[in-house]
């Protein structure tokens, strides 16, 4: 669609970004974005981060989806606490997205705040994008007709991740959940069993999550593996989402790379998927980078998310395969695609504040 070029920009605040984009829409957008990036890689780039000596980190997410008419960047600031098995933050700022028309370059919108899932609202930072990216994997990698899932984690990311799984695999009727705090997992089960109309059973050990599950999904903020990969059974699908912290290791904030999943899982997987292979080299996610370093798996054998559902990789090819999707960090392809949809819906609903700018040639000229 060709839009008239103007200097008007729609400013959208956090409360104006709520209740817009559904999980299904987000999964479709992200699949399209990664698929298009295969044929035009210049529109996608791995996340880039800068760190201050004071511990402040700003994450940048450039990218776009040209068929949706969008290109731009997102950024998010935070300040991390030192040490501990889980990564915690002393400060977390709102993400900011600059949404441009990919045909004209016009700045369409400045968005300050999270684009949250339409029915869930805010649960965690960038939870919709992260879950919808996992959702693309859920579309192609688990077996058909599955009924039981195992879930690690009981916070906001876990809620969105479970919704993505149920969106793509509505045959799931039972979810086993484990987190270290018994109250948290019980409260999660009580709340989301009713909301998602599915049986959610709190369990007492990681082993109970894995054994007998069709999908094993990790949605935590841990820095150490959650389960022994030797527990995996033929036909299971595994997903992990914990982000990389390689710059924090190099700057002394962390002692090791973060990971949810052990080397053995990567070694046993018949089909390995990441979002972008380049990210494994730039971000060094421990779940994949360390088994590559040890020679247990090879980078070139890992499939990219955009290749799923194509001739290159249609997805699972056998009910006996163990499949593993490492959701390797954010990418502007996902962020800007979702931001564009939020802009369209917010504009149609009359939300936001229009900011008018003069053309550059109308500004006062120096003598």
Per the principal axes of the C-alpha atoms, what is the gross shape? globular
Compressed to H and E, one letter per element, the order equals EHEEEEEEHEHEHEHEEHHEHHEEHE
Q: What is the CATH topology classification name of the largest domain? A: Rossmann fold
* Beta strands, count: 16
**Strand percentage:** 15-25%
Share of residues in helices? 25-40%
Describe the structure.
The chain has about 375 residues and is α/β, with parallel strands linked by helices. It has two domains: about 10-120 and about 330-360, ornithine cyclodeaminase, domain 1 (2-Layer Sandwich); about 125-325, Rossmann fold (3-Layer(aba) Sandwich). Helices cover about 30% and strands about 20% of the residues. The chain has helices at about 25-40, 125-140, 155-170, 180-195, 205-210, 245-250, 265-270, 275-285, 285-295, 330-350; strands at about 10, 50, 55-65, 70-80, 90, 95-100, 105-110, 150, 175-180, 200, 215-220, 235-240, 270-275, 305, 325, 355. Strands 1, 2, 3, 4, 5, 6, 7 and 16 form an eight-stranded mixed β-sheet that branches. Helix 1 (about 25-40) crosses helix 10 and helix 2 (about 125-140) packs parallel to helix 3 (about 155-170). The radius of gyration is 21 Å and the shape is globular. The mean pLDDT is about 95.
Describe the structure using short key phrases.
Rossmann fold; eight-stranded mixed β-sheet; single chain; 10 helices; alpha/beta; ornithine cyclodeaminase, domain 1; 367 residues
Which helices and strands occur, and which strands form pairs?
Layout: E1 8-12, H1 23-39, E2 48-51, E3 56-65, E4 70-80, E5 89-92, E6 96-101, E7 107-112, H2 127-140, E8 148-152, H3 156-168, E9 174-178, H4 182-196, E10 199-202, H5 206-210, E11 215-218, E12 237-240, H6 246-250, H7 263-268, E13 271-274, H8 277-283, H9 286-293, E14 303-304, E15 323-326, H10 332-348, E16 353-356
Parallel strand pairs: 1-7, 8-9, 8-11, 9-10, 11-12, 12-15, 13-14, 13-15
Antiparallel strand pairs: 1-16, 2-3, 3-4, 4-5, 4-6, 6-7
Helix pairs in contact: 1-2, 1-10, 2-3
